[in-house]
Every structure is written in structure tokens, then in C-alpha cells.
Specification:
single chain, 551 residues, alpha/beta, TIM Barrel, Immunoglobulin-like, five-stranded antiparallel beta sheet, 13 helices, 20 strands, 16% strand, globular, transferase activity, signal, EC 5.4.99.16, TAT_signal
């Protein structure tokens, strides 16, 4: 596994329940611990697109906002409800745009603010919302805030240590970088040296680190206001909310994330007053902590939260349940989901298969294309909010040994250009192949949207049917309960008292007993060859079924 340099460790978080599994009903409607009822996001499907790699309209080899606009029909046809666009802001691009030099601008390679406005308008006409990234923890070292801070030793927008506060032997504390300008001393970074950490204060003081400021000192207070103004700017342009990058890390040395939660709660309250429909999604990985802090939802991720990312990893990565050998278990995920949902209510947990960071694609070089439908049968019928990474709907591959670009640090393998057709550069760009942001998948049989649109039996059509089914039947959404009959092979559960889902991601067939008299008259909604004999359901290798028990 490539470990993202932007990943962050929170510790183990809430422990897994460890109790013996018995069928239980979750997801009864009601307010969550965060207060209020779930937002529109709870009934949506999020589609993450990496703008550099989605579609290039000006022939420079890099995707742009107009490319997104021109492919909104694909997303509408697919059935997604919201799109999350990775950063498009001005940046020197040492971390692919997560090093921001202007929070309220647009990098010229993507377009301009008018393109953002058109994207929002055109998406809205198609029933979709647009979310942006909010990178609140750090800026680029080229941001005017930091350039000003270099000139003024009374500026507290960033965490600075003066020469007198630093070790006498000339060494620097961990995570500190020597000043590159007139200001003496060193600043604290977030991850790359080019990403100075914004000063939101420390939850605890420490005489050994005299540079620490409290969360309510002038600098941290001013920064909280500045970040709200950034959010307000984009929300007024029609953006529907934010995926909040590294949300758990703003306040430093914060046991239990008490002050970090207070910070986000304050921002949540202010956003709700001005933009009541806006949503905040955290990159935290621990919904039990982040949702009560004020977020509408949080992702299960390869790091943080229960078992340091165990719910996600146990499904997709480390001895995964969705693996042909059949040696994994879904119990880790089910237990974590059960515990969190009982605490925070339904519709608050998001589950991706992949992302731009350290979450691998489903088609990862180990799983084969024939294994993908069963993964989607689960993903789109379990009561999490699904998150689709661009290209997953056609089974795009993770590509190893690609050149590093803009601080990708191995993550370029998940960032290859979208494959639209079988033309040059897979329809992504008219640029010469050597000028592409990242090389295209070199395989001659790489999947593409057009070919799969023309094939009713394709993965793309299957994903589309599942999204339509989920939208048509609330029993398959996040607000309906789930009763689990088996968390082994095949994973088998009842949604909303109506739809029985069974998924067998191993190579060998598997069987389960379900004591429900309606099974004999069940109507297959999606079925890959499942056999029902009395109370026994036998599922072929890599097989699945969605059975309507109401016939």
C-alpha cells in the first residue's frame, strides 16, 4: 500500500464491539447525535472527480472545468446526485492543488469563476449539486497570507517559533521548517514543507514549546473568521458544500479533539445560518467523533477511526472480504457500522471504494473485472452514502509505475485520465500523448464509457440500474433499516423489510440459510445465477442477487 504523505493518524478511536453477531435492525429514523435530521446528502450518491484527469477541452493535456460541464450529461444519465471536485484553486502545485495560494480564485488551467458559476447552473438543471474541497489546515507557502507573515514577526496567521524559542543546538522541532524569508525562526508545516500550517491554536500549553498559542488567542480567532469567509464566498456562488480536507488536524495537541470539534461546531452553526442547505463532509475517518462535531457525514477511510481504518480496509484492502480467496470477513465493517449508526443515526457514514489519495481502485491488479459487479451490488444497497470515484463505474484500472507529478508520491496510480471512448487518449484530450497530465492506461482493452454505453450487459449499465433502483425504493436508502443474516460468505442482509441482498465476492460458491417464508415467492431484481431452494440460498462465485420479497 502506498501511504499518502497527507494521511494523518488519529489513533484507534472507538473500539470495535467484539460481541457475537446476531441479526439486528439499524437505521430507525431519528435525530443523530449531531442534532437535527440528516441533510439531502443522506439520500444522494456522491461522485468524486479529479479535475486534472476528467476531461480536457483546450488541448493542453490537463482536465478543466469546461470538461466537467461537457460531461454532466454522463453523470445525470448515470444517476449521481452530487459531484465533489478536487481543488481548482490557484496553486504552485507542489501537492496537486492542495497547496492553495488563493482560496477564492480559480487556477487558469481549469478556467475561471464564470466557469464555476456555469458548472453550478448546468449541474443544477440536471438535478445535481456541486461540492468543493475546503483545505482549512494549511496554505501554500506562496499564499499572500504567508508571504505577509514572512515580513512581519507580529503576524500570527501561522505557527511560528522565534530563534529564542528553538533549541540552542540549531536543530528544529519535528514538523518545523526554517524560515525562507526575512522573518527569523521556523514555521510549523502540514506534511510538505511548502504547506505552512494555519494557526488555530493548541488545545494545551507546554512550557517546552513556548510558541504555542491558545485557541482563543487573536491569531486563531482571526483564522476561524477567515475560513468562514472563504466558505461563504463559494456558497454564495452556488456551491452546495465542502469536503473538508484533514478535518481532524486543525487544532494541535487536542486530546479527544475537543477544541477541534468546537471549531467545526462553530463553523457549522454559522454556515447553517446563512446557507441552511449546505453540507460539510469530513475527511476524518471516524464518524462517531466527526458527526457530533457538526459534520453532515464522514468517510470510512484506510486510516483513522475504528481499528485505524479497519472498516474500510477489511472490505477492500487488507485480507479483504471482497477478495477471490474468500479469507476475509465483513464482520469488522458491520460491527463498526452498527456501533457508529447507533450513536449518530442513519445517513451519516460515507463509503468509497477508491479516491484520489490512498484508497485503491476496485480494479487494483488483484481483483479482476469479473469481481467488480458484486462489489457494487453491496456498495449501492448498504445504508451508507455511496461515493463513486470517477472511472469506477466502468472498472478503470489502478496503474503502477507511472511518473510522479505535482507531489503525487505514488498516488498518480489512481489519477489516470478518464476513459471516454476508444479514440486517441481515450477521448480525454486532443493533446499529444507525451503532454498528458498523467499517461493514459496503456492497455489496448482498457474499458471506456462509450463502449459500455453501447453494451447493456456492461458494468456501467449495471451500476446505473443499481443507482436507479436505490433512488426508486427508499428501502435501499440510508434511512431504512438493515437486518443482517450472515456477515460471512455470502454477505446477506434485508433492507427495509423488503429487499434481500446476497453478495459472494469469493471465487467459490457459498450458501446461506434465510428463514423467511416470503423467499419462495421472491422476485429477482438483479441476479447473477443465485439458486433458492427452500430456505437455502446458494450464490455462485463472484455472484450476487437483489430479491424483492414482496414479489
Amino acid at each position: 500500500m502506498v501511504v499518502s504523505r497527507r494521511s494523518f493518524m488519529l489513533g484507534t478511536g472507538a473500539a470495535l464491539t467484539g460481541v457475537a453477531f446476531a441479526p439486528s435492525v439499524l437505521g430507525a429514523p431519528g435525530a443523530s447525535a449531531a442534532g437535527g435530521t440528516p441533510s439531502w446528502l443522506a439520500d444522494s450518491v456522491l461522485y468524486q472527480l479529479y479535475p486534472q484527469s476528467f476531461a480536457d477541452t483546450d488541448g493542453n493535456g490537463i482536465g478543466d472545468l469546461r470538461g466537467i460541464i461537457e460531461h454532466l450529461d454522463h453523470l445525470q444519465w448515470l444517476g449521481v446526485g452530487a459531484i465533489w471536485v478536487n481543488p481548482v484553486f490557484p496553486s504552485p502545485l507542489t501537492d496537486a492543488g492542495y497547496d492553495i495560494s488563493d482560496y477564492t480564485g480559480v487556477h487558469p488551467r481549469y478556467g475561471d469563476e464564470q466557469d464555476v458559476a456555469e458548472l453550478v447552473e448546468q449541474a443544477g438543471r440536471r438535478g445535481m449539486r456541486v461540492l468543493f474541497d475546503l483545505v482549512a489546515g494549511h496554505t501554500s507557502d506562496q499564499h499572500p497570507w504567508f508571504l505577509d507573515s514572512l515580513q512581519n514577526d507580529q503576524d500570527h496567521n501561522y505557527i511560528w517559533a522565534t530563534p529564542e524559542q528553538l533549541p540552542e543546538d540549531g536543530s528544529l522541532p519535528e514538523e518545523f521548517v526554517a524560515s525562507p524569508g526575512p522573518r527569523q525562526g521556523a514555521f510549523r508545516k502540514n506534511y510538505y514543507d511548502t504547506q505552512p500550517a494555519i494557526n488555530y491554536g493548541y488545545a494545551r500549553m507546554d512550557p517546552a514549546e513556548p510558541w504555542r498559542q491558545g485557541v482563543d488567542d487573536e491569531g486563531p480567532r482571526r483564522n476561524r473568521e477567515a475560513i468562514f469567509q472563504v466558505m461563504d464566498h463559494w456558497l454564495r456562488l452556488g456551491i452546495s458544500g465542502f469536503r473538508c480536507d484533514l478535518a481532524a488536524t486543525l487544532v494541535k495537541d487536542d486530546p479527544g479533539w475537543v477544541e477541534t470539534s468546537r471549531l467545526w461546531g462553530e463553523l457549522r452553526e454559522r454556515v447553517a445560518q446563512s446557507h441552511p442547505e449546505a453540507v460539510l463532509i469530513s475527511e476524518w475517518g471516524d464518524p462517531e467523533t466527526s458527526v457530533p462535531a457538526g459534520f453532515d457525514a464522514d468517510f470510512y477511510l484506510p486510516v483513522n477511526g475504528p481499528g485505524d481504518g479497519a472498516p474500510w480496509k477489511s472490505l477492500w484492502h487488507e485480507n479483504p472480504f471482497f477478495g477471490a480467496e474468500g479469507t476475509g470477513t465483513a464482520k469488522i465493517f458491520v460491527d463498526a457500522f452498527t456501533t457508529a449508526t447507533e450513536k449518530i443515526g442513519p445517513g451519516r457514514i460515507m463509503l468509497p471504494t477508491a479516491n484520489h489519495d490512498s484508497a485503491n481502485r476496485l480494479n487494483d491488479g488483484v481483483r479482476t473485472p469479473e469481481e467488480l459487479p458484486v462489489a457494487f451490488a453491496f456498495l449501492l444497497t448498504w445504508p451508507t452514502v455511496p461515493s463513486l470515484y470517477y472511472g469506477e463505474e466502468i472498472g478503470m484500472r489502478m496503474i503502477e509505475d507511472l511518473p510522479e507529478v505535482e507531489g503525487s508520491a505514488g498516488r498518480q496510480r489512481n489519477r489516470t485520465p478518464m476513459q471516454w471512448n476508444d479514440g486517441p487518449n481515450a477521448g480525454f484530450s486532443s493533446a499529444a500523448a507525451e503532454d498528458l497530465y498523467i499517461p493514459i492506461d496503456p492497455s489496448e482493452d482498457r474499458p471506456n464509457v462509450q463502449a459500455q454505453r453501447d453494451d447493456p450487459g456492461s458494468l456501467l449499465h449495471f451500476v446505473r440500474r443499481l443507482l436507479a433502483l436505490r433512488k426508486q425504493h427508499p428501502e435501499l436508502g440510508t434511512q431504512a433499516g438493515v437486518e443482517v443474516f450472515s456477515d460471512g460468505y455470502p454477505l446477506t442482509y434485508l433492507r427495509g423489510g423488503r429487499f434481500l441482498v446476497t453478495a459472494n465476492p469469493r471465487r467459490e460458491e457459498a450458501a446461506v440459510t434465510v428463514a423467511d417464508e416470503r423467499l419462495a415467492g421472491a422476485r429477482p431484481v438483479e441476479d447473477s445465477g443465485v439458486r433458492v431452494e427452500g430456505e437455502v440460498i446458494t450464490v455462485p462465485g463472484f455472484g450476487y442477487a437483489i430479491l424483492d420479497l414482496q414479489g
